[in-house]
């Protein structure tokens, strides 16, 4: 199919965008894109490509923006239950860490998730993924972490693999067994770290080899934060995972600066995520590395916090910045990555062009998929969106609505929203 007459064809060509380069959209005015066998086969102006491919099936974009599918590089999309009551507690002045200490927060979701079957988890996650897809997220990172025991962590992985096979979305799994300390290990964090390192990660590696042979290994993540895992505990978990052949990620600096970002750079992690309280020294270390800083602006928004990721300092230092949703039941239940872009423009001071690049090609780099998705370039997957507007600047400018008209995943249109 030849899709032509796009007011702006955003290619995002040229790979991940570092520092001042962020926001190079590679716009082709009155652009066209040829899709064959699920991949991008040609790009150019509508006049040139319509002349060159006269016999091709054609679709008129009718003067709308055509762009790559969004890549959501940090989500907790598979869980059971909800935490609506805790939302009210926060509104009454309780902090996230106070609720967690009282046995709520992540631990309440863990209890509901442990009680759910794989079929239940798939059924509950499916409509979330459908809403994400309708809002333009064609590739989604999906974490475990609401099990905190081997049986449930494997159950979550099975649900993620089933949902990925079901599609049409594409899921990139991450093991987050070190999301919190489960109730049965209360005040025994080191014992739980032993459980993760000595039993859970080796068992997950063996399970993956049997159940998902041929697929890339999942990432392993850890919540390096006050009230969760300290720097030494996080290092042990990540080094164990690395030695088992897993690629790495980290939750760091959401509330306190423990040094997790610097450690992530040292260990070659694909990304360090949250990064609200990150030090200047660690920002400089990020900028000298290929570790992507993933900002999650919906989280401080959901917590009514004042501080957000210091995106401008990261860009001034020359770092790689991505933006993701952090979809989760406790702090950021929002399936629209478009809304996260709107927040990024207001609180991270990104331009719409920078926000788009941060949620496409840079987000793809954060999950190791920059060679396949995140931009419209020859040979890459034909994951693209047709917006209902004629100028990309409406993304970020508008919020509380859906600007995606049609979604294509691997060369097939799979949803139309208007």
Helix-strand blueprint:
Blueprint: E1 2-10, E2 27-36, E3 39-45, H1 46-52, E4 58-60, E5 65-68, E6 70-72, H2 84-91, H3 96-101, H4 106-115, H5 118-134, E7 137-143, H6 150-166, E8 170-178, H7 189-211, E9 219-224, H8 231-243, E10 249-252, H9 260-267, E11 271-274, H10 280-287, E12 292-295, H11 298-302, H12 311-317, E13 321-323, H13 337-347, H14 352-358, H15 361-366, E14 384-387, H16 394-397, E15 404-409, E16 412-416
Parallel strand pairs: 1-4, 1-5, 6-7, 7-8, 8-9, 9-10, 10-11, 11-12, 12-13
Antiparallel strand pairs: 1-2, 2-3, 5-14, 14-15, 15-16
Helix pairs in contact: 5-6, 7-8, 10-12
Note the main sheet. 8 strands, mixed
Beta-strand percentage range: 15-25%
Q: Could you tell me the radius of gyration in angstroms?
A: 21 Å
By DSSP (H or I, 4+ residues per run), the number of helices equals 16
Query: Which structural class matches the secondary elements?
Result: alpha/beta
Write down how many β-strands occur, each being a DSSP E stretch of 2 or more residues: 16
* N→C terminal distance: 21 Å
In the predicted model, the low-confidence regions spanning at least 5 consecutive residues are: none
Overall shape: it is globular
